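Entry:
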Amino acid sequence: MTDINLNLALSKSQISDLVNALEDHRDDFLRKAVEAQNGFGLDPEYWKSRAGDIDATLLTVRSAIRMSIGQD
């Protein structure tokens, strides 16, 4: 998949909401991984890899936040 650059102007509140939503989304994938170990849904490794994808996105967002702090 090719990368897409998004240039966003977000308020501090919106950034906080974005980070919280990503963390909740990741945690939901981790819950699904636990449920999958009990025989529900897809393979646990699938859900763990999706949670890892979200962690990578969070890392990117947090890095962009740190870089932009000095630009205020």
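DSSP finds two helices and no strands in the chain.
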